[in-house]
Amino acid sequence: MKVKVLGIPVDLGANRRGVDMGCSAIRYANLQNGLEKIGYHVEDYGNLYVPNAEKIKIKKTSLKYAEEIIEVCERTAPLISKFMEEGFIPLILGGDHSISIGTIAGCSNALGDVGIIWFDAHGDFNTEETSPSGNIHGMSLGASLGYGDEMLVKVGGKKGKARPENVALIGVRDIDPKEAELIKESGINVFTIEQIDFMGMREIMELAINIASNGTKGIHVSFDMDVIDPSVAPGVGTPVQGGISYREAHLAMEMVANSKMLKCLEFVEVNPILDNKNRTAELAVSLACSALGKKII
Ligand SMILES: NC(=[NH2+])NCCC[C@H](N)C(=O)O
Ligand SMILES: [Mn+2]
Ligand SMILES: [Mn+2]
Q1: Reported pTM
Q2: Dihedral sign computed on CA atoms, order 172, 34, 7, 76
Q3: Is the CB of 100 under 6 A from ligand 1?
Q4: Exposed, middle or buried: residue 28 (CB in 10 Å: 0-12, 13-18, 19+)?
Q5: What is the mean pLDDT of residues 140-160?
Q6: Is 6 within 8 Å of 93 (Cβ atoms)?
Q7: Residue from 124, 176, 229, 275 carrying the catalytic annotation
Q8: Which fold would CATH assign to domain 2-291?
Q9: How far apart are CA 241 and CA 57, in angstroms?
Q10: 250 an active-site residue?
Q11: Residue-range domain boundaries for the chain
């Protein structure tokens, strides 16, 4: 039971500044202590170097900071693979959601076949052509599945990090029109917030875990804190009303732990500037503990 924590303080993929501080906020909320209490050996690698937005001129408004984000992701991928080969579960702290292009590449390279459960209010399936914002954090799931800019798609070496039938996108309620078409075309499994209301998180997670486990060597869980309702998780840059509850989020993580398939875990989009006394980071810590096996009794 070993966890290796890695901070990736990228905020270049999002419009609002401040998610780069997410990793510090999550560590400050006693992450290491919480994991040690449930029996983990925890090593903290520290943060990856990320260039400062103030020093960079945007070259392309349709793919903002692409060069820098790709460079960070290319450094991330081999590091994640290495942690996994050493027997650690990587626990990655964002940063905005663009970092997943690198983490998923690394996880996929280490495992060969990986399933992805992606929690998000958004689809993160835009491309340069469909994105209304040009922000790469809205493109990272699509890029991981082979859609979009060649350089983004090729991070870590191979195009298409998982089979679409092994991917579950959960909690979505804000998808751009052309993004929706791409999502449908891709064939990934989508569970909207409406379906969670209707079927309950338990059934959705049973399906999602099956989807992500079927024929794979393990599951990568990518957790965008904006999947949770903003009344519970206010410290995010792109909040959308009507998100999942505190307990639904925990139940989902508890079921991930029970599946014994978790190989790589990340929490992204925590923005301490917009938070209320660090409660969103504290929630990320308690969710991490649940995903890694913390039990009520
Ligand atoms: N990871 C996120 N919070 N993504 C938000 C994406 C918002 C919007 N769909 C866009 O592409 O700009
Ligand atoms: Mn996201
Ligand atoms: Mn989101």
Answers
A1: 0.98
A2: negative
A3: no
A4: middle
A5: 98
A6: yes
A7: 124
A8: Arginase; Chain A (3.40.800)
A9: 33
A10: no
A11: 2-291
